[in-house]
Specification:
This protein is an alpha/beta fold. It folds into two domains: 13-233, Alpha-Beta Barrel (TIM Barrel), CATH 3.20.20.10; 249-376, Lyase, Ornithine Decarboxylase, Chain A, domain 1 (Beta Barrel). It is built from twelve helices and 21 strands.
C-alpha cells in the first residue's frame, strides 16, 4: 500500500465474483442482472462490471443514463437496463449506445416511440410495474388494472418491449404477506398483459437481494432474471444468512498522530468527550468528508493491531480521534480498519449502520470520491 494514501477502500473483486457465482447457482434457470448503480454501491462500477462481464454476466442495471453511458464507454458490451427515470431528452443516447430503458407509463412509452421512429431505430424497453412500492410504474395493486395502457405501449412502433419488472418493498422482512401479494399481482398482470397484447415478455424479473435469499421456492417459477443488489457485494439485506456471501469492501486509514491526554482534557467540537483518566488518543485522517457519518461520534469502534479501539469526540470533516490506550504498541502509521477484518476481529458495515440508524447500502454509497478504491482479488 502506498503510504501517501491517507484513507482508502479495498475492493475485493474476487469476493464479488464469488457472490455472483453463488447467487447465480441458486437460480440455474434464470439469468443474472448485476446491479451496478450508484457506482456499484460505492465499490466502483467500471471495475466491478468489467470483472463480472469477464465472469460471464450478460446483464447489468443502473439508475441513470449517465451511469449507463459510462459503462459503455468503459467497455461493457452486454445488456444495460436503466431501472429508474430517463428524461426523454436523453433518448438519443439510449439509441446511440444500445441502452434499455424502463417505461413506467403510457406517456413515456409514446415519447420514446416517437423518438425511436424519428431516428429510424428500435429501442429496447422494459415495462415497469408498481405492485405496491408506491414509486414509478404502471399501477397494478389494490384492484387497479393497467393492462389496457400496457397493451397500448406494447403496440407502439419503434419500441421492442423486451421485458417487464417490479420491485419489492418488504422482501427482507419476516412477515412475507405483503411480498407474496406483490408477487401475485405481478404474475397476474404479466399473464393478462400478454393475453391482451398477444405478445410475450422475453425477460420477466422482480427478485432483489431479499427475495433472492428468502423466497427461492416462490420466485423460481417463471422468472427469467434475478437482480440482487447489495448481496452481490457481500452484505445481507435481512437475517437470512444460509448462503455464504463474502464482504467485498474494507475501509481503512492510518494513525496520523498520537497524543497523550490528561484527565479532564476534552476532544473535538462541542467537547462531547472529556477524558476521565490519562489516555493516548490517535488522530485518524478520515471524517464525514470521506463518508464516515458524524452521527457515529462516540459510538463506533475501529480495529488497530487486531483490537477494538473506541472512537471519541465528534467526528470531523477530515479526521476523527480514537482512544488507543489499551492497544499495546500502537504507533503512527499503523493501519486502522473501520470496516473489515484485522487479525481475528471484524467490524461489519451493518454494525455501523445500526449505530447510525441506517442501512449498510447508505454507508457504501456515501464513500466520497476522495477515498481511492484499491482493487484486490
Amino acid at each position: 500500500m502506498d503510504d501517501r494514501i491517507r484513507t482508502w477502500a479495498e475492493i475485493d473483486l474476487g469476493a464479488i465474483e464469488h457472490n455472483y457465482r453463488v447467487l447465480s447457482g441458486l437460480y440455474k434457470d434464470s439469468a443474472f442482472v448485476a446491479i451496478v448503480k450508484a457506482n456499484a454501491y460505492g465499490h466502483g462500477a467500471d471495475a466491478v462490471a468489467a470483472r463480472l462481464q469477464r465472469a460471464g454476466c450478460e446483464n447489468f442495471a443502473v439508475a441513470t443514463v449517465g451511469e449507463a453511458v459510462s459503462l459503455r464507454q468503459s467497455g461493457i458490451v452486454k445488456d444495460i437496463l436503466i431501472l429508474g427515470y430517463t428524461p426523454i431528452e436523453c433518448s438519443g443516447e439510449l439509441l446511440e449506445y444500445g441502452i434499455t430503458a424502463a417505461v413506467p407509463d403510457l406517456e413515456t412509452a409514446k415519447a420514446l416511440s416517437e423518438a425511436a421512429v424519428k431516428a429510424g431505430k428500435k429501442l429496447k424497453v422494459h415495462l415497469k410495474t408498481d405492485t405496491g412500492m408506491g414509486r414509478l410504474g404502471f399501477i397494478c395493486s389494490k384492484g387497479r388494472d393497467p393492462v389496457e395502457d400496457m397493451a397500448a405501449a406494447m403496440a407502439l412502433p419503434g419500441l421492442d418491449v423486451e421485458g417487464i419488472f417490479t420491485h419489492f418493498a418488504t422482501s427482507e422482512s419476516e412477515d412475507g404477506s405483503y411480498f407474496l401479494q406483490q408477487l401475485s399481482d405481478f404474475k397476474s398482470v404479466i399473464e393478462r398483459a400478454e393475453k391482451r397484447s398477444k405478445q410475450k415478455f422475453r425477460k420477466k424479473h422482480c427478485a432483489n437481494s431479499g427475495a433472492v435469499l428468502k423466497y427461492r421456492d416462490s420466485l423460481g417459477l417463471g422468472m427469467d432474471l434475478i437482480r440482487p443488489g447489495i448481496a452481490l457485494y457481500g452484505a445481507y439485506p435481512g437475517e437470512d444468512r444460509d448462503v455464504e456471501l463474502r464482504p467485498a469492501l474494507s475501509l481503512k486509514s492510518r494513525i496520523y498522530r498520537i497524543r497523550d491526554m490528561d484527565r479532564g482534557d476534552s476532544i473535538s467540537y462541542g467537547r462531547t468527550f472529556t477524558a476521565d483518566r490519562p489516555c493516548r488518543i490517535a488522530v485518524i485522517p478520515i471524517g464525514y468528508g470521506d463518508g464516515l457519518h458524524r452521527v457515529l461520534s462516540n459510538k463506533m469502534s475501529v480495529l488497530v493491531r487486531g483490537q477494538r479501539a473506541p472512537q471519541v469526540g465528534r467526528i470531523c470533516m477530515d479526521m476523527c480521534m480514537v482512544d488507543v490506550s489499551e492497544i499495546d504498541g500502537a504507533a503512527c502509521g499503523d493501519v486502522v480498519t473501520i470496516i473489515g477484518s484485522d487479525g481475528g476481529s471484524t467490524i461489519e458495515a451493518r454494525e455501523l449502520a445500526d449505530m447510525a440508524g441506517t442501512i449498510d447500502y447508505e454507508l457504501f454509497c456515501d464513500l466520497t470520491a476522495r477515498v481511492p478504491r484499491v482493487y484486490i482479488g
